[in-house]
Amino acid sequence: MSHDAYNLGRIERWMQTVIMHPAGVQQGIASEDARRHLDITTDEIEKVITRSNALTAAERLAYIAGPITEGCWNASARSSRSYCTL
Description:
Layout: H1 8-20, H2 25-30, H3 32-37, H4 57-68, H5 75-80
Helix pairs in contact: 1-4
């Protein structure tokens, strides 16, 4: 990924596209719309979003997307370390 790919505006547009995707975060990352902003795969998420002590980068995105995608992120999803794909 080039240095230009880390431009805040591009990251914001990519993140909005990913978390608003109707089929969930994984499909959002793989979508053509998201890849127009940042051409990364689901395996490369942590180049853009850092993990926390408790969550992977993908889980953090899903946590953010949860309220947007009708609350599909819940306690059972957190405990099983999975994220929603509507």
